Amino acid sequence: MNKWTKPAAAIAAVALVAGCGSGTGTGTGGSGTGAVKASNDLVIGRTVAVDGMSGDSCYGAGSISTMPMIYGNLLTNKPDGSGVQPGIAASYDYDATARTYTFHLREDAGFSNGSPVTGADVAFSFEQWRDGKTSGAYYDMIKSAEATDAHTVVVHLTRADTFLPALLTWCTSTVYPDRYAGMTPEQFFAKPIGAGPFTFASWQNPGPSETITLKKNPHYYDAAKGQPSIDTVVVKTSADASQQMLAFQGGQLDLIEGLTADEGNQLTTEQARIPKPSQARDLMLNSKRPALADVNLRKAISAAIDRNALASVQQGYVVPAEGILPINVPNSVPPTEPYTYDLAAAKALMAQRADQKPVTLTLGFEGSSSTVKTMVQLIRDQLAQIGVEVTLKPSDSATVYSQGSSGDFDMLISDPSAISPTVFDPISFVLTAWYPWTGADTALMKDKFTVGTSSTDDAVKDAAVRAIQDDARAQSTVIGLVNMSTAFAVADYVEGFTATPFLSYDAAAIRIRIRTGS
Amino acid sequence: MVALVQVPGRRRVRRGSGSAPLLTGAVLLALLLAASFAAGPLTGHDPALTDLTARFRPPTAEHWFGTDQLGRDVFARVLVAAGTDLPLALLGAVIPALIGIVLGALAGYARGWLGTAVMRLADLIQAFPSYILLIVLVFLLGPGGGSFLVGAAVGAWVTYARLVRGVVLRLRELDYVRAAQAAGLGHTRVLLRHVLPNALPQAVVYAASDIVLALSYLAALSYLGLGIQAPGIEWGQMIAEGQPFLRNQWWVSVMPGLAIILVGVAVRLIAGGLERRLQR
Amino acid sequence: MTTLLRISDLVLETGSAEAPLRPVSHVGFEVSHGEAFGLVGESGSGKSLTLRAVTGLLPEGVRQAGGTLELERDGVLRPYRFAEARGRGIGMIFQEPMTALNPTMRVGDLVTAGPRARYGWSRGTARSRALDLLAEVGMPDPKAQARMWPHQLSGGLRQRVMIAMALATEPSVLLCDEPTTALDVAVQDQILRLLHRIRVERGLAIVFVTHDLGVVRRLCDRVAVMYAGQVVETGRVDDVFTRPTHPYSAGLLRSMPTPDTPRDRPLAAIPGGQPGAGERPEGCRFAPRCAHALPACAGLEHALAPVLGSPSRSACLRVADLGGPPLDRKALIV
Amino acid sequence: MTGRGRFRFVGKRLLQAIPLTLVLLLLVFAMLKVVPGDPALQVAGPRASAATLEAIRVHLGLDQPVWLQFVHYLGRVVTGDLGTTATGSTKVSTLIASGTPVTLVLLAVSTVFTVLIAGATALLAARRPDGLADRLINVVAAFGVGVPTFWLGIVLLAGVALPTGAFPIGGWGDTPATVLRAAVLPALALSVSVAPVLMASLRSGIVEARRSEYHAAAQAAGVRGWTLTRRFVLRNAAVPPVSLLAALTTLLLSGAVVVESTFGLPGLGLSLTQAAQNRDFNVIQGLTLVFSLAVVAVNLVGDVLVALLDPRVEV
Questions:
Q1: Which residues of chain C does D239 touch, with a Cβ-Cβ cutoff of 8 Å?
Q2: Can you name the CATH fold of A38-273+488-512?
Q3: Which residue has the higher pLDDT, D33 or C189?
Q4: pLDDT (tens digit per residue) in C50-96
Q5: D93-309 has which fold?
Q6: How many Å apart are CA D95 and CA A83, to the nearest integer?
Q7: Distance between CA atoms of C89 and C86, rounded to whole angstroms?
Q8: Which of D 213-272 lie inside 8 A of C, CB atoms?
Q9: Per the CB < 8 Å rule, is B230 touching A377?
Q10: B247 at A interface, C-beta within 8 A
Q11: Burial class (CB in 10 A: 0-12, 13-18, 19+), C185
Q12: pTM of the model
């Protein structure tokens, strides 16, 4: 017998023990009704990091769903996307001629530090929104805001505006305590205090693989109704959607935001919650680039894209786009002439270009989603048919944004999604971002936006929207591709979840069936 | 890439010519490479052709490795990808080997500042983990096969240079090399006649492990979107694309992974066989 | 004097099981308490392998295929287990102190590693015992040298460390595998004196494996001469050296170097070379080189047998009729 | 080697590392000059006016001679100022500070796995060189080197983490227990490719030690059992692998970059990958510096360790 056997066996045994680890997942996973979870914690997975804790910098899907959880809004979206409903504000009055809004706050709304939400807090918040460096432009109609009493705020506008109620549901309309509760903005946003259903607890590894932990806010305005029901929300961001899918199937995630067809098709129909498609996906063409300055090329690209094919790989989640704006949103109307796939026309347009040099373009997109990856491959193949060579350039969402804002792109895929129940919401994105980024002429859109948002008449609004759609088709710097549903994966033991079409959802209403007894 | 001094498969030089493993490995690689050029006719499918009506077909007699999310034939794509991966991995090992042999010989013969400079440069290069060096170079030069080759060349020559320099330093003291030099044989001749034969078996072993490493780095880069870009077809990139479907449509990313492993084994066989032959 | 160690019929094999080679075949000898026993022969005769077999430390690929190894315990000879005998009873000194001392251990630790592993000596006990042992083997400054690494010592000191290490478990027999071959002549002498002193002081038995007949002559009481894996002659040193009873022993003695002949001179007195393990002739293995060989020698393997008129035992068939004159005494002066 | 000799040796090696470190810094600094694009524009953002850009240039010292810029760069590095990420949201130093523990834990756990796997298999293989176990282990090791780490990672996630539920599927933990659990599979994926290299070296070291005279001498002197294995085999067999330490570490670091991306571990490697994907220059620059300095440090430690393990090494 050799001397070596014993130590070798001992080491192997240690390796085995170390390799096995112990413990079990947080959830019971499992499928079918009657599934339960061990703890009253909601673990959310998503691929997009938040854009910071300040509402001013909110633009991405991560922030859109997180900000309302922490801060609360004066108004919120109706779950079906048909309009707004009360939030911290129980009601509001609008006087179009006086250009004033009056908000009546709920008396039971409280910040996570225990102080009640007062008119002074809301008035302070309005000023912060208007003065914000990034999103202040959306609030430029606000002249002043004043608290007339502890629970009433009057907002004076520079012009008539019917867009404000929808704007107040946005993640940029975060309600802050007056003067940041005595803190500097840096201190405040490092550990924010809000009136939402949950309280900020920690934010680890800010960035593409961050983890945000939120705790129940006992001072939430619906606390009397038993909301929120969940004790802790943990948001885990990871660039890898397929990995999240595995984690969900393994019971380690209870909810996935931003579910696409590729992942959704691996789930049961109960688990995949698909709202109506109301997220537009557009292709931006940078007309400041020499080749793309030629409108013929831009139109040729539009005509060469087979939107039915793009939609077919994500059946049930995606429909072809008719214009650049999302559908299923109040006042959304298609352009006079919807997009058509016409290869011959596209080739003819290519021939009409002033400069007949071969075209090579980069296509930037957010690379964490497999459905986007599939889509861009199809676009590349389709554009190859008219002799446009496309180089794919994936990055993360923050980088896509900075490429867009710095004009560092040829073509960029982006989603001017509706996040509130009015089509003027995506129009405002396009107006302040997409159009300037691509070098498009914003004059008509600006005009029609003002017309549409100062009117209460749906016919006027519809006409303005149609004009905007037609203008977009004519300029072709922003091209509609598809309309998508941003779906959610929801574990069987999660109750009270309603998938809204606008990326955010009412986390306060979510309940978890937990294991009772031992 | 760093060739490590000890690699499994190296140490054991058994009796025998090594022909059988050498042949097996070489035939495997040759077949794979040949098939990559004829992937279309061989499989009956265009590797680039998307067919949205034939998405996610499981492996069948029609589609040996199934089809992917765009209805493309995975077998045809795995074969075509061999035409991308194999030459790049091979060059990613051979180029640095050649550079390293030349620089190592230079450092060995030229005492003084030149030799010192080469060795200091080697120290510097070795301060970077090879894969990180690769990422940085790809970052500076942009993604693609060319950047990969530059990165491989910059990172992996050091091992060969050290090896050859060591042999040169040892041999230059030996009488027969002195005699050869005295007899008017140039440095090149001495290098070819006396140094290379001494350094070759080990260089071959290094190169073999470098090929495997180069392949896995190339695949890793492409997997992360920093290597071969679509429409180029590459195994790592295929694995990345198939990853979302791993649970239900496993073949999309498992097959290219197996191909990488197959190449690793084939290279190991060749290296083992060659080494046995060279050491006889 | 009673027998301490008895080796009988030792067979060592290498190679495949189907066609084994036997570097050592049917070797036997006895060592008594306090006796110095020499095992001489040329390199390749199997003497070192035999010694290794006694401790069970055969090199890889060599296996013991037969034989009995016995050690005295409580007055009775009994077969022993190697692992037991190594720590209690048998000690061994190796030829190359440079390679036989673990380079990664300090001298002090090395000396007592055996008893520490075996008897669980405390660090303190081990340290003081190590100093005693180092002093016993004549290290000039045990305290300082205990803290040194083997590579920092001279060859002679290293061999002293080796001896101290072997003595640490209080053996009753010390196996010495050419303990002075690797050393300078002057140092050789010191080490031999040391071994002699220790033997006397401790009442140790010593088995000396060497090709240096001078050493045997000087130190040993009895000797066995090995040739091609066999013992060809054994007897008291005085007898064998004055009246060898085997032609090989006689040749060996004739070729014995005087102090001024080079050390590794071949055996000029005997033509030819020792056959390897694979090329051994039938019958007497020395016969092809033997001036006195008869046809019968090639056919018969002759076992060690008593010699008429001599206390030695010889494996030569012709021992009776050869007899032979005594050797020239001059050749034996060292 | 005496205590003072060791001290002097470490000091000497430290001194030798200084010029290398300076050259590394110079090289990383030079990256800034090679990359196309205006650093001032990166700081100021795309909408900055020409005057702002000029002011920033002066502020950054870009109007000064290059050598002075390098001195300033050194100053910033020493004070830990490595700039911000491209989107300006995070300091690179913060990113490094938050990623370093993750990468270190991953490396530590993989090292433990690598040593355990390599140690156990090497001992097993060395029992009978060229025996069945040895050959089998050699074949498995060849596979281990050839399996792409990221692919193995995916397979482990889908094939182990999902069915067992014992490990988090991607992501990191926040308590020691959850962190360790999160590190197990990535470390395993990493070890599979690195362990064979260590195993081969360890195995030959063990075989050599077991064939050595000092091993036989120790046995003859009664040393046996674990003492024999530990002090006369493993200790000696550890010398060649420790001299491989630097090479192994660079291999582990390289692997960590891949594995962190596969498993979504928020370490330095994931930051590097994401920075490369997003062309985030400051992050790449800062991380390159961190990684290369780490390798220099490991080299230093490796040399010192070899000297400690093998007293024969020249000081």
A1: 104
A2: D-Maltodextrin-Binding Protein; domain 2 (3.40.190)
A3: C189
A4: 999 998 888 878 889 888 999 988 888 889 988 888 878 899 998 88
A5: MetI-like fold (1.10.3720)
A6: 41
A7: 6
A8: 213-225, 227-228, 231-232, 235-236, 239
A9: yes
A10: yes
A11: exposed
A12: 0.79
